[in-house]
Amino acid sequence: MMTIKGRKLALLLLLVVALEILLFAGSDAKPWWRRRRRRTCSSSRPSSHWVNNWRQNFNVRCPNSYSISVWQSQYKSCLGDRIHYFKCKRGPFQYQDKHCSTTHYVNDYNKALIFRCPHNGVIAGVASTYSANTRDRRFGFRCCHKHGYIAHSCRHTFKMNTWHQSLRYVVPYGYYLVGAYSQHQDSKRDRTWKFEICQFSRFRYYG
User: Fold this and answer.
1) How far lies 19's CA from each of 8, 9, 12, 30, in Å?
2) What CA–CA distance (Å, rounded) separates 169 from 160?
3) Nearest CA among 140, 142, 144 for reference residue 92
4) Distance between CA 146 and CA 153 in Å, rounded?
5) 3, 45, 163, 169: which one has the fewest Cβ atoms less than 10 Å from its Cβ?
6) Of the candidates 57, 182, 162, 197, which has an alpha carbon nearest to the alpha carbon of residue 107?
7) 174 exposed, middle or buried (CB, 10 Å; 0-12, 13-18, 19+)?
8) What does the pLDDT average to over 186-206?
9) What pLDDT sits at residue 40?
10) Residues sharing a CB contact under 8 Å with residue 12, sequence separation 6 or more, in sequence order
11) How far apart are the first and last CA of the chain?
12) Does the structure show a pLDDT above 80 at 30?
């Protein structure tokens, strides 16, 4: 059974609600029980293993004799961008800086990206710059090769992500990353990705 004190408290709450209704009737403002907190859109990365914050440039490079083995990204709708993570594994051959070259950006904003390393090379680095106007990125690559090694048994992956969804691609054992292909859709403010991987063998010439 409700006590006299409890009844008074309930009556007071009803009076507060009624007052809110009278005050906000005919007004665009919402009463307190209908108000929602505004969602904040933080641009800070959730952990330090990501190589960039949202809307920031990055430049990742594997140690000599290594190539990219994991390509991962995560999308944030309120910022229209992705953060990225890369991992390297020992490549199919040993190389030094003199065996490597770095491309300029290989795609324009809002345009497709089609790239494969020349000279039987592997992808050993990825760089990217972000445009706030287009909410898109351009990408460049570092490729490394070694004379006497050739790529073979190459294959393309399926599309590795859908719009706004996370991407994580791990290069299979015995294969190495040699190419990347990406489509951009302006209405989605995002990119989908496919990759090309190859095996490598030492070339022997018998004269």
Assistant:
1) 16, 15, 11, 13
2) 7
3) 144
4) 18
5) 3
6) 182
7) exposed
8) 89
9) 80
10) none
11) 104
12) no
Rounded to the nearest angstrom, the gap between the alpha carbon of residue 86 and the centroid of all alpha carbons in its chain is 10
Q: For residues 22 and 118, what is the distance between their CA atoms, to the nearest angstrom?
A: 73
3-state SS assignment for residue 96: coil
Q: What is the rounded CA–CA span in Å between residue 56 and residue 45?
A: 10
Q: Which tokens in the block code for residue 37? A: 């907190």
Q: Of residues 17 and 73, which shows the higher confidence score?
A: 73
> Which residue's entry shows tokens 């006497």?
148
- How is residue 53 written in tokens? 């914050």
Quickly tell me which residue has 């907190």 as its tokens.
Answer: 37
Angle, vertex CA 33, rays to CA 3 and CA 1, nearest 5: 15
Report the length, in residues, of the chain: 207
* Helix or strand holding residue 6 (H, E): helix 4-24
Nearest to 61 by CA among 138, 141, 146: 141
Identify the pLDDT of residue 7. Answer: 66
Residue 178: what residue type? Answer: V
Residue 200 has pLDDT above 60, yes or no: yes
- Give the position of tokens 């293993």: 49
